[in-house]
Amino acid sequence: MSESLKEIIEALPYRPPFLFVDALEEVTENGSKGYYQLKKDEYFYQGHFPDNPVMPGVLIVEAFGQAAAALTAHGLDKETYDNKLVFLMGIEKARFRNPVIPLSLIHI
What we know:
Largest sheet: 3 strands, antiparallel
Number of strands: 3
Shape: globular
C-alpha cells in the first residue's frame, strides 16, 4: 500500500517547504517506509554547506518525525486525529553515520 502525497498532506499539518515526506509505502501496524526526494535547490542548502549540499541533521530528525506522524494518522480513525497535532517529544542518542545528499549528486 502506498500513501500519495495528497493523502499525506490531508493527514499532516505540514506544507512545503517544510514537508519532508513525499510518500509512505508498505504501511502496516509494524511500521512503514517513508520517502523524501531531496532536490539540489532545497532552501536550506543556501546556508548549510552551499558548495557541498548536506541535509541538516535536525531536518533529518524532522523528516523521521513527520513520517511517524503520517503513520500514526494512517492507523487511526480520521475523527480521532482530525484537528489534533502530533508532536515529536524527544530524541535520544541520535547519530548520523553518513551525510544525506540529493540523489542527483550521487556518482555511481
